[in-house]
Structures are given as structure tokens and as C-alpha cells.
UniProtKB/TrEMBL annotation:
The gene is proC. Belongs to the pyrroline-5-carboxylate reductase family. This is Pyrroline-5-carboxylate reductase. Its EC number is 1.5.1.2. Pathway: Amino-acid biosynthesis; L-proline biosynthesis; L-proline from L-glutamate 5-semialdehyde: step 1/1. It catalyses: L-proline + NADP(+) = (S)-1-pyrroline-5-carboxylate + NADPH + 2 H(+); L-proline + NAD(+) = (S)-1-pyrroline-5-carboxylate + NADH + 2 H(+). Catalyzes the reduction of 1-pyrroline-5-carboxylate (PCA) to L-proline.
Length: 279
């Protein structure tokens, strides 16, 4: 496989929000690569106009764009909607080189689906990035298929590390990972929403309430990252004995948040399995 910096080519087939974020991350990184992205419409393709290092192809004007991009790529990222994946794989399978690495960015589509539609021996990995990848702070779960060697894993890690951190996991754990890091941003936003509403109920304006709530979460996360402390320890440092925070935390603990988050992530996992089964 051509992995040398001056010859690496990455094709992102279906460069929507997530595929586009990865393409932009690679383009802005120190990973020298030629990047080709495809989208169905000229309008979507135009969103990459002027981005250094990215060649954007519209399938409206270049119907063979997916095949052309895949045929020249060392790494092919498949980012189309899950229902479109099987047909896309059948389309590109005849033009893939034997050493091309194919990576799924499509939620709920198994490695077996990829391997059954691609040439025998194709190196396939399944990824599960999350939306903070859009600002370079993503978490990507990465699972390997049957024909992936250490060099392929290392290369794909480098690609996803341009938009955050990577956690390698067996495919059997990818759906579970999606309930934590994949869906996790929504849980955080929900907590911020609720704290904002609580602030408004105490007389703050909407703008003030948003500022107080959002910056508290952002600051707390930054302190957690900078300090390296366990979250429980940081919580203890804020919670003075017999103080106001202790009283508030007691109410939250009475709500049995561990059980609530357990049920929430279990519900997400059940739905992920339904989607994988085509429900």
C-alpha cells in the first residue's frame, strides 16, 4: 500500500457533516495527503471551494466520481447514508486496488456488510466518530475487520487523530461506544438546557442564563482536562461540607443518576441494534 507522505490519497465518498469534518481535519493537519471528496449535488460540493488540499467532486456533473475517487485512493472513507452503503460498495468494488483500505463512517453498518460486497481480502475498518470532530475535539471508536494489519490500523488512526482522539475496540463494542461518545454530546447539551432553564426561573435573562450555564460547562470541562484529576475529586473540591453545593448534589444523587444514565444508554444500545438489523 502507498503510505508514503508524498503519495497518500484519501477519498471521502459522501462528505456530509462528519465526512467533511474528517476531510477538513486531514487537510489542516501535518498528514500530507491528496484528499478527494464527493457529494451528490453541486451545491454541497461547493462548500469545499477554496479549501486547500481538498478536491471536491459533484456527482451531478461527474456521475463516475465515486468510482474515479475510489480507484486512485489508498484510503476510502464511506460516509454516505447507511441505506446507500450497499449500492455504493457494489459500485466501487470493481475499481478498488488490492491494497486499498476501506473505512465505514456509516452508523449501524457492519463490517460484514462491507466485506461481503468488496473484493476478498479487502482491509475494512468501522469507525464511530462524534460531532465534536467538527471542531477537532472528537472521539472516534475504531474496529477492525478480518484482513487488517497493524500498518493499516496505524494509518487510519492518523487520519482520525486529525479531528480528536481514537479508541480501538472490538466491533461488538461499537454500538455500546456509540451510546457513550456518539450520543454523549446530546446528553451534555440536555444538561446545559436544563441548567439554563433553572437559571431563567431564578430571574436571569435568557442571555445571562445561557452565559452562566454554557460557560460553566465549558470551564468545568477545561479544568478537568487541564488538571488530570478524577471528576469525583474535582466534585469533592467544589463541595464544601454543609455548604450550598453539598445540598444541591444531594438532590441530584437522590434522583439516582447512575440508574437514569444506565437506562438511557441501554435504550440507545437497543435502538442501535434495531438499526443494525434493519428495523
Amino acid at each position: 500500500m502507498a503510505q508514503t507522505p508524498d503519495s497518500l490519497t484519501i477519498a471521502v465518498l459522501g462528505a456530509g457533516s462528519m465526512g467533511g469534518a474528517i476531510a477538513r481535519g486531514v487537510a489542516a493537519s501535518d498528514l500530507p495527503a491528496r484528499i478527494v471528496v464527493t457529494n451528490r449535488t453541486a451545491a454541497k460540493a461547493q462548500t469545499f471551494a477554496g479549501v486547500d488540499g481538498i478536491e471536491s467532486v459533484s456527482l451531478d456533473t461527474t456521475p463516475e466520481g465515486n468510482r474515479e475517487a475510489a480507484s486512485a485512493a489508498d484510503v476510502v472513507l464511506v460516509g454516505v447514508k447507511p441505506a446507500m452503503v450497499p449500492d455504493l460498495l457494489i459500485e466501487i468494488a470493481p475499481v478498488l486496488r488490492p491494497d486499498t483500505i476501506v473505512v465505514s463512517v456509516a452508523a449501524g453498518v457492519t463490517i460484514a456488510t462491507f466485506e461481503s460486497r468488496l473484493p476478498p481480502g479487502t482491509a475494512v475498518l468501522r469507525s464511530m466518530p462524534n460531532t465534536p470532530a467538527l471542531v477537532g475535539r472528537g472521539v472516534t471508536g475504531l474496529a477492525t475487520g478480518s484482513h487488517v494489519d497493524a500498518a493499516a490500523v496505524a494509518l487510519v488512526r492518523r487520519v482520525f487523530e486529525t479531528v480528536g482522539i481514537v479508541v480501538e475496540t472490538p466491533e461488538a463494542q461499537i454500538d455500546a461506544l456509540s451510546t457513550i461518545s456518539g450520543s454523549g454530546p446530546a446528553y451534555v447539551y440536555l444538561l446545559i438546557e436544563q441548567l439554563t432553564l433553572a437559571a431563567m426561573a431564578k430571574g436571569f435573562t435568557t442571555e445571562q442564563a445561557r452565559l452562566l450555564s454554557e460557560q460553566t460547562f465549558i470551564g468545568a470541562a477545561a479544568l478537568l482536562e487541564a488538571s488530570g484529576e478524577d471528576p469525583a475529586e474535582l466534585r469533592r473540591q467544589v463541595t464544601s461540607p454543609k455548604g450550598t453545593t453539598e445540598r444541591a448534589v444531594a438532590v441530584l444523587q437522590d434522583a439516582d443518576l447512575a440508574e437514569v444514565f444506565g437506562r438511557a444508554t441501554d435504550a440507545a444500545l437497543a435502538r442501535a441494534r434495531e438499526l443494525a438489523a434493519g428495523a
